[in-house]
Amino acid sequence: MRTERNPTRLDRVFARLDREPERPAHLSVPRASRHRTVLAIAALAFYLAIVWLVVTTSWLVRLDWQVMFFRPYQQWASIHWFVDYYVVLGQRGPTAVMVAAWLGWRSWRQHTLRPLLTLGASLLLLNITVGAAKYGMGRLGPHYATVIGSNEMGLGGDIFPSGHTANAVVTWGILAYLASTPRARRWLSAISAVTSLGVGMATVYLGTHWLSDVVLGWIAGLLILLALPWFEPLIARTEAYAFDLRDRWRARGGAKAPAAPVTPVAAPARLKPLTAPQNETAAREAAVPARGPRSPVHLVPGHLAPGPHTTRSERTPVTPAGSRRPPHPDRIVRGTPSAASRPVAGG
Known about the structure:
It is elongated and about 125 Å long. Helix 6 packs parallel to helix 8, helix 7 (114-137) packs antiparallel against helix 8 and helix 7 (114-137) runs antiparallel to helix 10 (211-227). It has 12 helices and 2 strands; from the N terminus they run ααααααααααααββ. A two-stranded antiparallel sheet has the order 1-2. By secondary structure, it is mostly helical. It starts with 8 loop residues before the first helix and ends in a 43-residue tail after the last strand. The protein has helices at 9-16, 34-55, 59-70, 72-75, 80-86, 92-110, 114-137, 163-177, 182-206, 211-227, 232-255, 276-287; strands spanning 299-300, 303-304.
């Protein structure tokens, strides 16, 4: 009895690389639920509270200076090389390329543009919100601080909130946001949280950000992920428009497609005149008149001639052609008097 081999983990991995025949029906789109709305309002309030504590030079600013004077990069100098590489997970360019490659494969496999469009929308929101806050508050970093104990606000800096931290939260958190199953969403949420937390602490270790910069960067990235469901209708309309534009482009390309090259028709071949033997044969066949229907031939004793059909007793027996029976010259035809019965002349 033949049994099938159980698929291995590698077989399942390669099976997932195949493109699905149509868009999966189980893909769920997160909605702006009441729970998410409450979290977004709480995160926004926390964001404004952090900004207020820094602007008023409160205890949070003093904590920033204490961490800076601690100089973590000198306390744990042995891990400096690792942190230099790890902080790349928060840089916009490398992370965007890696995540876009993964989401691009998902878009191709699932016949949808939503993963790529969601990533683009989140990065656009990140640039607008975080970029505006950076240049609006103009805070200087620890390496460029001028007055000990000051908040260093409005001096032309661009480090509050931390762009590395916010980018790590958004870029890796978008994978959890677009997860297909609740289990995958939980695992990816935990992984993205740990990754973004590590990136933020790495910037504090290297002395490129204040601790309050990192906290505000976490909240800024979380706000973008919580606000994405409000942009889902716009993403859906953009996807529909992109597919409609693709269909119209294909139809236009099919209508104006260049015609296939026409193969030039060769000139008609010239017939050669018939040779003399062929001319004679054709003339001879044309001179022979067509034969009409043959009249029936009847057998009459003594000769062949057309005539009426005779009875069997009047027919003259004829030896079939090719018969093995030899002809008898002394045979007397039926109906003819024999020699014995003839009167002998003079008798």
